[in-house]
Amino acid sequence: MVTYDEKDRFFIARQMMMQQHLRGRDIRDMRVLNAMEEVPREAFVPQRYAANAYDDNPLPIGMGQTISQPYIVALMTQALHLTGTEEVLEIGTGCGYQAAILAKLAGKVYTVERIPELSEMAQAILGRLGFSNIEFYIGDGSGGWPQQRTFDRIILTAAVQEIPKPLTDQLKEGGWIVAPVGGEWMQDLIVGQKSRGALLIQIVTGCRFVRMIGKYGYDEAP
Ligand code: SAH
Question: What's the total number of domains in the chain?
Answer without folding.
Answer: 1
